[in-house]
Amino acid sequence: MTSTLRRLPQALSSPRCGTSRASTVPRFHRTYSTPATPTSAQPWSNPPSWTNVAEDEIAKLAAMRRQPLTLGDLLKHGQPPLSKQALLDSANFTLSLLPARLAYRIQCLRNLPFIVVSNPHVSRIYNNYLHSLSTLLPYQQRRITTLAEEKQFAEVMADLVQTHTNTIPILARGFLECRKYINPGDVTNFLDSHLRARIGTRLIAEQHLSLHFASQPISDENPNPPMSQRDQCPPNYIGVIDTALRPARIIRSCEHFVGEICELKYGVRPSLVIGGEPDAAFAYIPVHVEYIITELLKNAFRAVVESGNEREPIEVTIAAAPDVPGNHMYPVPNLPHHARDGDVNVDITEEVPVANENIRLTSASSQSITIRIRDRGGGIPPEVLPHIWSYSFTTFSENDLPVGENGNIDALNTISGSGGNNTSSIAGLGYGLPLSRAYAEYFGGSIAVQSLWGWGTDVYLTLKGVGRISED
Hints:
This protein is α+β, with helices and mostly antiparallel strands and 472 residues long. The chain has two domains: 2-63 and 80-234, Alpha-ketoacid/pyruvate dehydrogenase kinase, N-terminal domain (Butyryl-CoA Dehydrogenase, subunit A, domain 3), CATH 1.20.140.20; 238-471, Histidine kinase-like ATPase, C-terminal domain (Heat Shock Protein 90), CATH 3.30.565.10. It is 40% helix and 13% strand. The longest helix is centred in the middle third of the chain and has 31 residues, at 184-214. The protein is globular and about 65 Å long. The two termini are 31 Å apart.
C-alpha cells in the first residue's frame, strides 16, 4: 500500500505569511487552483501553501459537532474484501468525519500567537491542513455513489496520509524556534490536543485505504470481489485492525529491535522475560502498540544499562481483564483532551452489527489488556518525574534537532520513531512518553508510571480493545 501513496519532496520551501492581522489569526491571501475533477493527489513541485477554501466554509465546518470515533466504527464495515456497497459505505463514513476535524485543527492553529503561526515550519503544517481540506471539499456536499468516485477518493486519502506524515518533527522544530514567544505549558497543551487529533485523522484515512486496497479488483459492473480473493485476505485483519492481536508477539519483536540498537550503542543486550498471560489476545491496532512498546522498552533498556544493572532481566507481565459484559465500561475519570473535544467515544454499551452478517462485535464487554514493564534501572530522579509527560523541546538547542534521517541524537534514542509513523526525527526531544500516552488514551487506555528512586521503574500500559469478535 505504501508504494501507491504519492510521495512528497522532503525539503519544501517555506511560504511567506501575510502581514495583516485580525486578533491572532494570520490572513493568507493568495490562492492556488484545485483540480477541475477531484482526482487530487498530484505530486507537488512547491509546497501546498495557499488555498481557495472560503473562510466561512472553514468556520462552518469547525463549528460542527465532530462525531466520536470508536474501534467499533472502524470495524463495522466488515472484513475485506468488501462488496461494492460496503466499500462505498466506508468511503462515505470517512468523508463524514474528516472535513470537520481538519477545519477544527485549522482553527486551533489560527488561535496560536501570530508570530508562532508565521514560523515557516508551523505555517507549513497550517497550509498542509488547508490543502487537505480543499481536496475533500469537492466531495463534501454529496455522497460517493460509484466505485470510480471511490477510487478517486482513495487517491485523496493517500495524499492526505502522505501530506501529514512528518507533522510531528516539523511542529517540533517550529515550536523550538518559537520558544521565546509562547509559554511551554501552552505548547504542551496545544501539542497534546493536536497530536491526538492527528492520530484520529490518520487512522480514519488509513482504515479506508486499507479496506480499499484489500477489496480490489471490483468494479461497478462486478460489485462483488472474486471468491479466490476472499481466501487471500488475512482472516484476523479488518483494515489496519488486528482482531486477534497478541501483545506478546509485538513485545518480542520490539525487544529484538531495541536489543539490536542497544548492543550497537553499549555493547550489551539486556534480557527480557514475559509472564502473566502471554497468549492473551484482543482487537487493536498493531502499529499503535508497536510504537508504545518500543518507546517503553527503549527507556527500560537504557535505564538498566546506564545504571550498570544490565544483568537484571526486564520483566514484562501481560494481564487480560475478565471479559464480563459492562465490567470495563468508562466514563473515565479526568477524560483526556481529545475526549472532551468529541474526538473519541469510550462509552459503548451495545452490540454492534457489522456489514458481514456472520461477525458481531460485543463491545459492551470491551476487552482491556494491561502490560507491566518492570526494570531495575535505578528509577526516575524526583526532580525529573513531574516533567515526564511534557514535550521537552526546550531542553535542546536548535543545532541538536535531527535533520531528516541523519541526526546527531544518539543511536538508542533514534528508535523512538519505530512503528510506521516516521517520527524518528523527534528522537531526543522528550516526545516519546507523551506521544505514547496519546496513543494509549485514544481509545480509553492509559499509561501509569511508578518509580522507586534508587531501584527501578514500573510502567503500566492499559489498552482497551473492542471486545470479542464472534462468528455466528
